[in-house]
Amino acid sequence: MEEEQEYLFKIVVIGDSAVGKSNLLSRFARDEFDHNSKATIGVEFQTQVVEIDGKEIKAQVWDTAGQEHFRAVTSAYYRGAVGALIVYDISRSTTFENIRRWLDELNTHCDTTVARMLVGNKCDLENIRDVSVEDGKNLAEEEGLFFIETSALDSTNVKTAFEIVIREIYKNLS
Ligand code: GDP
Ligand code: MG
């Protein structure tokens, strides 16, 4: 019998409080959305199996547990990460302005080979948009990140966001 290689990719989700990190994760891993904002307690990561090019890949996605102050996220959180989703809320520009600080933090803990995706979440809130798609794209281009807008509420692009990152990690292996 042929040996099946195990693929396990650790992916971290970072960004300001209440941008929707936990809901992106629950939408991805369980197809669930939680309307009541409550701080993440206990659960550190969830694992979801994704198939890429016929290979089963386990995405182990880590969520911060109310540690969203800068430098409060411990190095254990970042350790071994091969992918990162850096999330802001398109209806709150302060969360976008803080992206560079999250990138700095990521850079101090992880090397540059980590696959990075800039995620503008809550794109269902078009009527109160505070960050243009253009601004998101431009920042991503400057910083060498993938870019996507998502909605954990209506599911737009959530699976795609994770799959692009997982594909990139897989590609970098070969
Ligand atoms: P976290 O602190 O980054 O983990 O954010 P949460 O996932 O706890 O979400 C914070 C709040 O934003 C909650 O009230 C969610 O219901 C809401 N939320 C999360 N994602 C979306 C989204 O895509 N669209 C909208 N409209 N609300 C969202
Ligand atoms: Mg959370």
From TrEMBL:
The keyword Transferase appears for this protein: no
What is its membrane topology? Lipid-anchor
Q: Which GO terms describe its molecular function?
A: GTP binding; GTPase activity
Its domain of life reads Eukaryota
The principal localisation class reads membrane
Location(s) in or outside the cell: Cell membrane
Could you list this entry's UniProt keywords, alphabetically sorted. Answer: GTP-binding, Lipoprotein, Membrane, Nucleotide-binding, Prenylation
A Gene Ontology cellular component where this protein is annotated is:
plasma membrane
What family, per the record?
Belongs to the small GTPase superfamily. Rab family.
Which named protein is this?
Uncharacterized protein
